[in-house]
């Protein structure tokens, strides 16, 4: 546990970079300031002592004012040093939080694009943000408080011997009982319990997010919250853990802690009563009263110090869970960077004995796939759902890196092509197009920021987007999502095609480009596609087999294997899976037309 705390602090300080040294300055200032804050208590002791000695002739007392000034001076110095120390630790905390965000985002930028399929970018950003925030309190306040409290206790032990060790021990004993009770709540097997409690909290948050995402489904099927069993179970698990921790584990130690934090008097008062007879006998009664006043006042700062330790412990715990969230982000795989990049020789795409297995999956999504697409050819990937079509297409622009084999673009392994060159070489049109909440013009320009507005308009025209722009209030400058602007799936797809046309890449990968299109949009999309694909190397994935009949070659993928390959005619003649798919497809089309007639 102690090692874990040390590790947490040293990892965090590594994120502080150049500001690490400032932490030590801040901590040293905090320690000195705590020392300064003890001095006024000593002055109180001296004042009380002089007053009691001079009693009843108080005019004899000479040094009270001097003690007053010394107390004031040290109190002010303590405050100033504490603030400068806090300034230093805050600077470190802010820089560390900034570095956590920067380093995390830099790492994520090197992750393959496919990683974001399973890890939503919002979730990753949320993880980094919350982790950065959770480390701030520890570095800005808690560490300084821990050091300050250590100095305080060291000061107490020294003062215990200087004035009256018995009263010092009484104060210290109550502090020690309080600390032991506090750590018994957090240490040993309770630390594990605390981790489980936090894990239950995390599970509840995740299940809650899933539930909110699924609200439309819940509403459509008129289900209740109880239909989301995982969420309900997560809430129950969390509340059981919380009740057990707060009720069973914390009740006794918490009560002891609170009693002794505020109650140095529990030992101090009986002790003094016990000592009165002997001091009256020795003639040291005035000394006893002076010391009692000192320890009674001094014990008040113990409770403040203990409360700070308590916060500091939870701060360390919070920071350590924050570090595990950062670890999750930093575990994201990164694409190998080539040291001596090569330029593709032409626009061909070749798969050589390629296999690929998703992380955590037992069965390969692709097994020993080999095919070649010559420059200017159109090759279609078809086959049953889950056959590996999208996976194969994703390996070309390195959304993932192959597990075995080689993918080549222009006769060069894609891993040996500079990432920017590869991205310039390949345009990818996804099934599910993402448009940004900005103008249509900017949305298209993302593909080629140096393009002129005229080029963008030309691309939009070629992608048959004129009707979309005409109906928008500010034409091409309309912000998508603003003023009730809504684009259908097919319309969004045409904007995405305009992007790909503007990019002007020699290789085009189309993943179900017509997936979300109604018949009217489909015709327009097909026209846009014919512009985009003209004289380019095209790899297209399609379920609507009518879109692939003219392809130079059709590859049929099933369960990660190529099971048939050829032209539309050759595959029909083979009488295999493609032939069956073609019959099924035509029956489905006919069924649609027939049922359409029935409705009419
Ligand atoms: N991100 C992922 N993580 C883990 N497994 C995945 C992931 N994406 C796909 N798979 C699995 O890989 C296999 C191939 O999926 P892929 O999406 O490539 O098939 P597909 O032929 O494109 O299917 P569809 O036609 O339904 O889009 C499937 O078993 C699928 O469950």
Verbal overview:
The protein is of the alpha/beta class. The chain folds into two domains: 2-330, ABC transporter transmembrane region fold; 349-599, P-loop containing nucleotide triphosphate hydrolases (Rossmann fold, 3-Layer(aba) Sandwich). 64% of the residues lie in helices and 9% in strands. The protein is built from 21 helices and ten strands. It has helices at 2-16, 20-54, 64-109, 115-118, 121-162, 165-186, 188-213, 215-220, 229-249, 251-261, 265-282, 285-330, 389-394, 419-425, 440-445, 453-462, 466-471, 489-503, 519-533, 568-574, 577-599, and strands at residues 349-356, 366-373, 378-382, 404-409, 412-413, 426-429, 507-511, 537-541, 553-558, 561-566. The strands form two sheets. A six-stranded mixed sheet has the order 6-7-8-3-9-10. A four-stranded antiparallel sheet has the order 2-1-4-5, with no helix packed on it. Strand 4 (404-409) and strand 5 form a beta hairpin. Helix 3 (64-109) packs antiparallel against helix 5 (121-162). It is elongated and about 120 Å long. 33% of the residues are buried. Mean pLDDT is 82; it is low at 596-600. Bound molecules: adenosine-5'-triphosphate. Adenosine-5'-triphosphate (ATP) is lined by residues 117-118, 358, 361, 365, 383, 385-391.
Spatial sequence of strands, sheet with the most strands: 6-7-8-3-9-10
How would you sum up the major sheet? Answer: 6 strands, mixed
- How many strand units? 10
Tell me the distance between the termini: 74 Å
Q: What is the CATH class designation of the largest domain?
A: Mainly Alpha
How many structural domains does the protein architecture include?
2
Domain ABC transporter: 349-584
Keywords: ATP-binding, Membrane, Nucleotide-binding, Transmembrane, Transmembrane helix
Protein name: ABC transporter ATP-binding protein
Pfam families: ABC_membrane (PF00664), ABC_tran (PF00005)
């Amino acid at each position: 546990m102690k090692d874990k705390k040390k590790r947490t602090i040293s990892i965090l300080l590594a994120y502080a970079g150049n500001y690490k040294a400032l932490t030590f300055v801040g901590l040293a200032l905090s320690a000195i300031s705590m020392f300064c804050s003890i001095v006024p208590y000593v002055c109180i002791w001296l004042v009380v002592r002089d007053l009691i000695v001079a009693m009843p002739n108080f005019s004899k007392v000479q040094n009270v004012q001097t003690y007053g000034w010394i107390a004031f001076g040290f109190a002010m110095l303590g405050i100033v040093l504490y603030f400068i120390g806090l300034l230093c630790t805050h600077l470190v905390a802010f820089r560390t939080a900034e570095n956590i965000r920067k380093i995390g985002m830099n790492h994520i930028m090197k992750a393959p694009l496919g990683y974001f399929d399973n890890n939503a970018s919002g979730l990753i950003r949320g993880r980094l943000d919350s982790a950065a925030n959770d480390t701030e309190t520890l570095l800005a306040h808690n560490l300084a408080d821990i050091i300050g409290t250590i100095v305080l206790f060291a000061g107490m032990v020294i003062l215990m011997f200087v004035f009256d060790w018995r009263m010092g021990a009484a104060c210290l004993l109550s502090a020690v009982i309080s600390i032991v009770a506090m750590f018994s709540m957090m240490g040993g097997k309770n630390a594990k319990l605390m981790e489980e409690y936090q894990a239950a909290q995390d599970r509840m948050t995740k299940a809650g997010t899933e539930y909110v995402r699924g609200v439309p489904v819940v509403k459509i099927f008129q289900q209740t919250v109880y239909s989301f069993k995982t969420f309900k179970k997560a809430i129950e698990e969390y509340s059981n853990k919380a009740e057990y921790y707060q009720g069973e584990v914390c009740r006794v130690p918490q009560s002891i802690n609170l009693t002794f934090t505020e109650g140095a008097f529990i030992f101090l008062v009986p002790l003094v009563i016990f000592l009165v007879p002997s001091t009256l006998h020795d003639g040291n009664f005035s000394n006893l009263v002076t010391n009692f006043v000192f320890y009674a006042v001094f014990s008040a700062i113990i409770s403040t110090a203990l409360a700070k330790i308590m916060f500091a412990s939870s701060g360390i715990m919070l920071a350590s869970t924050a570090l595990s969230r950062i670890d999750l982000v930093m575990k994201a795989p990164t694409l190998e960077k080539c040291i001596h990049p090569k330029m593709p020789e032409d626009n061909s795409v070749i798969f050589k004995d390629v296999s690929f297995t998703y992380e955590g999956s037992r069965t390969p999504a692709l097994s020993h796939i080999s095919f070649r697409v010559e420059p200017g050819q159109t090759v279609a990937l078809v086959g049953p759902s889950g056959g590996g079509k999208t996976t194969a297409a994703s390996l070309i622009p390195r959304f993932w890196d192959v597990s075995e084999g080689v993918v080549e673009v222009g006769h060069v392994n894609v891993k040996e092509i500079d990432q920017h060159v590869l991205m310039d070489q390949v345009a990818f049109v996804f099934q599910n197009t993402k448009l940004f909440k900005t103008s249509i013009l900017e949305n298209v320009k993302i593909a080629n920021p140096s393009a002129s507005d005229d080029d963008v308009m030309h691309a939009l025209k070629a992608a048959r987007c004129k009707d979309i722009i005409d109906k928008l209030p500010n034409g091409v400058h309309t912000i998508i999502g603003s003023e009730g602007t809504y684009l259908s799936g097919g319309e969004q797809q045409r904007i995405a095609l305009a992007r790909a046309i503007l990019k002007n890449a020699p290789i085009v990968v189309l993943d179900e480009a017509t997936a979300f299109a109604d018949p009217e949009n489909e015709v327009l999309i097909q026209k846009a596609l014919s512009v985009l694909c003209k004289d380019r190397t095209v790899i297209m994935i399609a379920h609507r087999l009518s879109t692939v009949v003219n392809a130079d070659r059709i590859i049929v993928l099933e369960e990660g294997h190529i099971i048939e390959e050829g032209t539309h005619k050759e595959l029909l003649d083979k009488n295999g899976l493609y032939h069956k798919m073609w019959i099924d497809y035509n029956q489905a089309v006919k069924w649609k037309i027939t049922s359409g007639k029935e409705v009419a």
